[in-house]
Specification:
14 helices; 16% strand; cell wall biogenesis/degradation; 13 strands; Rossmann fold; EC 2.4.1.227; cell division
């Protein structure tokens, strides 16, 4: 039986694509192991699946001045030594990395052990962790056609992002029932990310009375961000976080409002949901969400409103545009090349593991 080590962590976006690959990897006969950080979000998510999990030391590599820049390189070196030891013990045929800083020592250790490594870059331009890992990889998978120009031509492959199988199994009626809704009005689903998004939450609540004239609204607002004054509002439900019921809520939705994290928008694309994207501002990030959203807008998949430009009038107009012309957006998404991602990536893994 062939063995594979998966790595990636720090945020859910660096873990869920790996989780999406696991069923197909099992079908292909792989014995699966995971290397992540000691206590990152990946530990809980992977252990729940019964996959052997190994934690290593990890440090963040920063582009800005911080006292931790003195200590964190030593954590990375420790993680590299631990990863080398684990890879010697596991003896995998291949390593697949979804990124995040914990993946750096694993990928570099795999290179030092002459183990082929495939990495996946979700965003339009590679982040710092993947920039370090690219020279060690045999293949680099991407979500966006525009990313190919930033990568070595002999390594880059346009695959899209692996989408969790359960997202395609959502039940619209179950979703409506869970929220206490019916079929009388279309449904808007708002997703602000795992931690919620204050700008998105405020914008939606600012036009809620107008939205409720035409729509029912499901609002995933993030931990600690519920508005108690709106509890009991007919046609509006808010949840801090949803896990198992998410496929049903997505199936119940007619349009979506979301941040523009790469995995989130690839899931929206896979489900063919007309959408409005409000990317995280460049002041709060390296600007990757802005670039992601721009690509989806150019391809005709999304309407984009920059966070700094959100007004009640703009958001309401965008919601009406997305709903009234939903067939146009669905038709554009149906033409996407970013389909069969899992099949493509597992094919690359099989080739590398030979």
């Amino acid at each position: 039986m062939k063995k594979i080590v998966l790595t990636g962590g720090g945020t859910a976006g660096h873990v869920t694509p790996n989780i999406a690959l696991i069923p197909e990897l099992k079908k292909a006969g792989y014995e699966i192991y995971y290397i992540g950080s000691y206590e990152g979000i990946e530990k809980k998510l992977i252990e729940k699946l019964g996959i052997p999990y190994y934690g290593i030391s990890s440090g963040k590599l920063r582009r800005y001045i911080d006292l931790k820049n003195i200590s964190d390189p030593f954590k990375v070196l420790k993680g590299f030594a631990q990863a080398r030891k684990l890879l010697k013990k596991i003896k995998p045929d291949v390593v697949f990395s979804k990124g995040g800083f914990v993946s750096v020592p694993v990928v570099v250790a795999a290179k030092s052990r002459k183990i082929p490594c495939i990495i996946h870059e979700s965003d339009m331009t590679p982040g710092l962790a993947n920039k370090i890992c690219i020279p060690c990889a045999v293949r680099v998978c991407t979500n966006f056609p525009e990313t190919l120009k930033h990568l070595p031509a002999e390594k880059a492959v346009l695959t899209g992002s692996p989408i969790r199988e359960e997202l395609f199994k959502g039940d619209k009626e179950k979703g409506l029932k869970f929220c206490g809704f019916d079929n009388s009005k279309p449904v808007i689903l708002i997703i602000g990310g795992s931690l919620g998004a204050v700008a998105v939450n405020n914008a939606v609540r600012g036009i809620l009375p107008e939205l409720l004239k035409k729509f029912q609204v499901i609002h995933l607002c993030g931990k600690g961000k519920k508005d108690d004054s709106l509890v009991g509002t007919k046609g509006y439900v808010q949840y801090e976080y949803i896990s198992e019921e998410l496929p049903d809520l997505m199936a119940a939705s007619d349009i979506m409002i979301s941040r523009a994290g790469a995995n989130a928008i690839c899931e929206i694309l896979a489900l063919k949901k007309p959408n409005i994207l409000i990317p995280l501002s460049a002041q709060a990030s390296r600007g990757d969400q802005i670039l992601n959203a721009a690509s989806f807008e150019r391809l005709g998949y999304s309407i984009v409103i920059q966070e700094e430009e959100v007004t009640n009038e703009k958001l309401l107009a965008a919601v009406n545009e997305a709903f009234d012309n939903k067939e146009k957006y669905i038709a554009a998404m149906n033409k996407s090349q970013l389909n069969n991602s899992i099949e493509k990536i597992v094919g690359l893994i099989n080739s590398a593991a030979k």
